[in-house]
Design brief:
By secondary structure, this protein is an alpha+beta fold. It has six helices and six strands. The protein has two domains: about 140 residues, no CATH class; about 35 residues. Strands 1, 2, 3, 4, 5 and 6 form a six-stranded antiparallel β-sheet that branches.
């Protein structure tokens, strides 16, 4: 069977373009993406856990639009770390240090082969649909049929401002639960979408700066 043409495959991807970190869908809807830090809930005291749950409940109650929580799980690639260690081996001053480093490298390589080490990234997708009921178009890559609307730069900036207000509101609400959130830029959104459509690929993680 012949492989499908690129054009035939792309018709199933509802993304029209990504501009200034904003995903523009083919139906005219917008999506902004926040990357979120995690909270080690299990290590918190009962009082702290209760406060986090209450804070998250209050956060959800303040929203007048829908959001989507996306968890990206993938196998951690330790090959760059092993290569870094191997590059340091010739620079060790004593034979004992070189032996210890080689043994450590073999331990890391063996552990990576035997264990399924996973890393998780957390995102919140915030929708905005100009002249469309945004509450009914909340999926990560879902939307309604195209709406008749001009795509002028002025209209885009106005709609972008509305979406950024929503992103700021979500980030502020999450801060009350101890979760830090930051909006992804264009390159980071492209990377996330690429990984979503190519789950077998090993990519560097998107990081949330401190």
């Amino acid at each position: 069977m012949a492989a499908p043409a690129a054009g035939a495959t792309q018709q199933f991807v509802p993304v029209k373009e990504i501009r200034n970190g904003i995903v523009i869908l083919k139906d005219g809807g917008y999506r902004g993406v926040l990357i979120c830090s995690s909270v080690n809930f299990g290590l918190k005291s009962a009082e702290e856990q209760h406060a986090i749950i209450l804070g998250f409940q209050n956060f959800l109650n303040t929203l007048d639009f829908s959001i989507q929580i996306v968890i990206n799980s993938r196998r951690m690639d330790l090959r760059p770390y092993i290569a870094l260690l191997e590059g340091k081996a010739p620079g060790q001053k004593t034979e004992l240090l070189r032996i210890q480093l080689r043994e450590y490298i073999e331990f890391v390589r063996s552990f990576a082969d035997q264990a399924n080490i996973m890393t998780k990234s957390f995102y919140i997708v915030v929708p905005y649909a100009p002249r469309v009921d945004a509450a009914k178009a909340v999926g990560f890559l879902e939307g309604k049929k195209p709406a008749a609307r001009g795509a002028s730069e002025t209209a885009f900036e106005e709609d972008r401002a509305q979406l950024e207000q929503r992103l700021a509101l979500v980030a502020e609400g999450l801060a009350g639960t101890g979760v830090r959130a930051a909006a992804l830029g264009t390159e980071e959104v492209i990377e996330l979408l690429y990984r979503s459509f190519n789950p077998g690929e090993l990519e560097n993680p998107i990081r949330l700066d401190a």
